Amino acid sequence: MTTYRGSCHCGRVTFEARTDPFTRSVVCNCSLCRRRGAVMATIADPETDFRLLTGEDAIGEYRFHTRTARHYFCRYCGIYTHHRPRSDPSMLRVNAACLEGVDPSALEPALVDGRSLD
Ligand SMILES: [Zn+2]
Predict the structure, then answer these.
(1) Bridge-based pairing state of the strands 59-62 and 70-74
(2) DSSP-assigned states of every residue in 31-53
(3) 58 CA distance to ligand 1 centroid (A)?
(4) pLDDT-wise least confident of 2-11, 40-49, 62-71
(5) Is the pLDDT of residue 91 over 80?
(6) Which domains does the chain have, with CATH numbers?
(7) Across the chain, what does the average pLDDT equal?
(8) 3 C-alpha vs ligand 1 centroid, how far in Å?
(9) Which pTM was predicted?
(10) Centroid of ligand 1 to alpha carbon of 80 (angstroms)
(11) Dist. CA 12 → ligand 1 center (Å)
(12) From ligand 1's centre to the CA of 107, what distance in Å?
């Protein structure tokens, strides 16, 4: 596990996340995830392994359907930074492409079948 710095595009939203994107990444086929196409790295313990550094007031939240999952994005640049999935809202995943030094195209994410929950 490594602690990464992460940010949106405009830099308002920054965070630290402890994860291993090479073994803990997923893509999801639900109606939202297939449109945005992000590879998400799972944070083992959101209480200790994720820290929002800046941009709390810049974060927008999107919910749909059962409104259980929470999808967070920067309201200024539109970049999707992290989410709490419907399957387990206590879990947190970060957008692997927002992590410094991580090439999301080099990851081999597992598939989450979110479509069957749609
Ligand atoms: Zn931004």
Answers:
(1) antiparallel
(2) TTHHHH---EEEES-HHHHEEEE
(3) 7
(4) 62-71
(5) yes
(6) 2-117 (2.170.150.70)
(7) 93
(8) 21
(9) 0.92
(10) 9
(11) 5
(12) 24
